Amino acid sequence: MKLKGITNIFFDLDHTLWDFDKNSALTFEKIFETHQVAVNLNDFLKVYEPVNLRYWKLYRDNQIDKASLRYKRLKETFDAIKIPVSDDLIHNLAQDYIQYLPTFNHLFDGTLEVLEYLKPNYNLHIITNGFHEAQQKKLVESRISDYFKTVTNSEMAGVKKPNPIIFDYALNLATTTRHESLMIGDNMEADIMGALNFGMDAICFNYHKELVTGSIKQVTSLKELKRYL
Fold it and tell me: Which NCBIfam families match (predicted)?
C-alpha cells in the first residue's frame, strides 16, 4: 500500500544502506594483517559482532563515551577468544579501524536503485548515531552523499536515537514536519520505535529477518520499499 502525504524520507546509514558488517570484516582483515595480529577472522567476528552491538546500546543509552566504546569492544573480544594483546595495540587497532573503515564501501543490494527511484519525488536525509568523521567519509566514498539534502548525526544533535530530540533536530534541519516524514532503518529500538514514539511513520529494513511484531511495516530488501513509496 502506497504511503500518502510523505515528502521527506530519513534513512539510517549503517546496516541500512551501508553494509556495515561486510565493510567492518574487510577492515579488520586489513588492520590485523598490518599489525600482524595472529587471529582467525571468523572466530574474532563471531564474538565481536554481538559485543559491538551491546556496547553500541550502552553508547546510545549514554552509559559509556566514544573512547570507551572503541576500546572496550576490542578488549572484551580479545579476552573472550583468549588472545593476549597489549593496551597500546588495542588503541592502535581502534584508531586504525576508524581510519580504514570508510575505505571499504559495499552498499546493500538495491541501494543505488532505490535512491535513484526516490530522489525525483522525495527529499532524502540521513539520521545516524555514528560518528561525524566516519559517517561523512562513508557517504562520500560510497558515492551516495549527493542523494541527501541533510545529514544529522548524534554529535550534532547532542543525543542519540531513539531520543526524540535527534528526530526533532533532523526535521528542523530538513524544514519538514513529522507527519510528512518517514524513517527507514534496521534497528527496532533506535530507528523504528524512536521514530514511531516521536510521531513519525517508519519502515523496518529487516534484512536480518528477525521477528517483527504488531503492525510495524517492514521490508527484507531495499527494493521492496517501492511497494510503499
Answer: HAD-SF-IA-v1, YjjG_YfnB
Interatomic CA distance for residues 157 and 104, integer angstroms: 27
**pLDDT tens profile 115-164:** 999 999 999 999 999 888 889 999 999 999 999 999 999 999 999 999 99
| Residue whose C-alpha is closest to residue 46's, from 25, 18, 19 | 25
pTM over 0.85: yes
114, with CB counted inside 10 A (0-12, 13-18, 19+), is buried
Q: Is 62 left (phi over 0), alpha (psi -120 to 50) or beta?
A: left
Domains in the chain with CATH codes = 8-19+107-227 (3.40.50.1000), 20-103 (1.10.150.240)
Q: Are 153 and 137 spatial neighbours (Cβ–Cβ below 8 Å)?
A: no
